[in-house]
Amino acid sequence: MFPFSKANDDLPAQAGNPKYIFVVGGVMSGVGKGVAASSIGKILKAKGLSVTAIKIDPYVNVDAGTMNPTEHGEVFVLDDGYETDQDMGNYERFLDESLPEVNYMTTGRVYLEVIRRERNLEYGGKNVEVVPDVPLEVIRRIKKAQELAQADVTIVEVGGTIGEYQKYYLFGSGPHAEADESSRCGNSDGVVRANPRKHRRDEDQAHAVCGTLA
Question: What is the reported pTM?
Answer without folding.
Answer: 0.78
